[in-house]
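User: I've been going back and forth on whether these two constructs are worth ordering. Before I decide, could you fold them both?

Assistant: Sure. I'll take them in the order you sent them. The first construct and its structure tokens:
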Amino acid sequence: MTSPLTLTARWLFPVSGPPLEGGTITISGPIIQAVEPHGRRHADLDLGNVAILPGLVNAHTHLDLTGLKGKLGPTPDFVQWLRGVVQYRRSLSPLQAANDIRAGIAECVRHGTTLIGDIASQGWSWPMLLQAPARAVVFYELLGLPKDRAEISESQARRWLEEHPATPTCRPGISPHAPYSVRGSLFETAFELARSHQVALASHVSETLEELELLRHRRGPLVQFLSDLGVWDSEGLIHDAESLVQQQSNVFNFLVIHGNYLRLDRLSKSWGKTTVVYCPRTHAAFGHAPHPFREILAAGGRVALGTDSLASNPDLSLLAEARCIRQRFPDFPGDQLLRMLTLFGAEALGWDQETGSLTSGKSADLIVLPLPARDAKDPHELVFESDLAVGRVMWRGSWVDENYYVSSAT
């Protein structure tokens, strides 16, 4: 049995409490034994001018689209971009998809992510994430607007959930894709499955103006897109995105992906277990109206961060997402931003008892981030007003390199 290891650094950010200048974290095997202020305990290793933060949580990505990096960027024409994604997905062989997913996982880990929420076509990412140095929720994606396709999707999802029970590091979830691609009855089934299996549910909701036009008026560019795919069925559509959010009652956890155009005045004041997942750089690249994340937080809602996929983002860096927010909204509180980057995502994915903060008894999942050589009134500035990259990643008490190799912390 290895001896406990105590680390110290210029700043320690537990998230569950205020930042600790010169604080220490003691790790025993895969578990955090103690997090203490400076001077309470002698450190075995001083990491120097760095911050120790919890491992980051990417609450929304599509690992199977990693191969689109640099090949398909966001455009003002969302539907044209969507056509490119569909075309790429249809061209993928299982081997190509597996290679893309492995590359995506490696990029996530390199950027400090130790918990991933992946929306997976056919559940493809499960075996790869099962072996990865990270925790995960794999959201099996449901598609089906016409009745016959919805019934097939339901049957396949039920079977997949039965065949993929939770493991110590990987849990199943379910993802009815979006209101424009999923029949209303299939949404109802998905909520029922999430309740009965006690798994998280994620859906792209209120993402674009094209979606809102389709739901409200049964018209717009998505009609032609769905017709070209042979799946247009106006009778299957729900009437508004907000009605989905209201259905969250008794769902284990509901992740509203994007929520760019949610009408907050039409939502219940109680957000329950609903989390809006904001993908800042993808949101900015598509030129959407300002995101309501501040209003959601002010109303008592929870907002986590995601990278979306490499079909709309240059990389899978969660830290870059947070820094994008800091650049656009410099007055937004740093402690709140750090929670969006870590604990809020863990809560959204149902892993907050194990990870998301540096807390005694939780898993020793952390990152080491070099800091600029300057002082700051608020130490969060050193994290978010810098372009320095993650230096080291620890998962379950072991250091991880970008090739997935783990080594003892000692």
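The second construct, handled the same way:
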Amino acid sequence: MLAVRRWRPSAGDESPRMTTAGSDPEVVELTDDLSGSPLWNPDLAPTTLSQRTWSTYHIAALWIGMSVVITTYTLASGLMQQGMTWWQAMVTILLGNTVVLIPMVLNAHAGTKYGVSFPVLCRASFGVRGANVPAILRALVACGWFGIQTWIGGVALDTLMAAAWPAWRGFGGITVWISFAVFWLVQVAIIVRGLEGIKKLESWSAPLLLSGGALLLMWAAQRGGGLGRILAESSRLQTAHVPFWQLFPAALTANVGYWATLSLNIPDFTRYAQSQRSQALGQALGLPATMTAFAFIGVAVTSATIVIFGEAIWDPIALIARIGNPLVIVFGALVVLVAQLTTNMAANVVSPANDFSSLSPRRISYVTGGLITAVLGIVMMPWKLYADAAAYIFTWLVGYSSLMGAIGGVLITDYWILRRRQLALGDLFKMSGRYSYSNGVNRRALVALVVAVLPVIPGFLRAATTPGGIVSDPGFLDTLYTYAWFVTFVLSGVVYLLLMRGERQRG
């Protein structure tokens, strides 16, 4: 039975009707018809209770599918190359993913409770029009990530084609671009199938990805003389000797930044969760452990290659080709390509597709938004973004984490502190409702966003113009930049709270 809970309208403001799922006040459903609103389309509409079918397993499988990917496998490489030991790299990765899990679960709450996506949730704090600012900032980062993961997938396909069919290399350097195009087209085909296709892809691929990682680790331990021996060899992976505590701040921020984008748009997925318990437990089980475990597999297997082949082979694709067994190549190709697909489809398509759709709901559907993402992912030249591992970590990851932190600070402060988890759901789709502010824009939120980002810009510019992204003689602003996500997250939240202090917050 659904118990109807009616919201009392304030003067001149008609609030919508909502229902709660049984006795659970943390899962509600909008019952009013808002299809006539220019801010509404079927993809952005709040999910109904019948659409909320994602269990704890589905949420955990989502994170396993997104975490098991080549960039996670090689994540520790940049840290160890700069001087960290294997266990220092693992602690940093685990801590970073535990930290980012907190805003992840907090932002996920609104998605599960109200069935809204990230750009719709942004309307409560930034205004029904102002929400396009954080949505597009998030979308552009996702486009960059989509391009990077597509490029890696294309390179993987190219390498595996050459291993399985040596004549492939006879076509020259064009093969990598052919592989890139093929992998891109495969993803476009998945995009047009919508979100349900992504759910199915993540659900069946999770066991395959975990099995592939476990088999690779077992092979490394057996051929490398045991886990203890191969980890002892890991010291040879350190090509620099920067003190740990000098590396740690930026490395931790980079690992937080790795999923800082998802910590914002996680409502895009949890709007389909069955309950708050499902989303929170699923994320806790699926994110920190999988990220750390797969990064550990990367370190252990790479260390084993020193023993087995006499050199460190960080790239799992090159390793699979080096092993040479046709069966291994075929299975390895399947695991690697599925890993790239699951990560890209979930992490880098769903959010920008919704974000672009929110710009013009009547003209841009989820599928159209996904296709825009695919095109921009190429335009951003991902082969250059991923070319330098150190710059990738200390410039790309840390740099965009500052933007994501600033947006996250506003969202969490607005929803958890000011509104105390109460939203007027229907007004998120009204041009003249509670979230219209001034011409649809809450300038206080935008001011908080800008103020929070300003202090880290000098450090970013210096890192971006320094080879490798690591400044040799860091000053105060450089140090501040290494904590970019933490600085902008706290600062935007505090500034927004102060600016909104005089406002009457009623949801």
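Notes on the second construct follow. The two ends are 26 Å apart (CA to CA). Confidence is low (pLDDT under 50) at residues 1-15.
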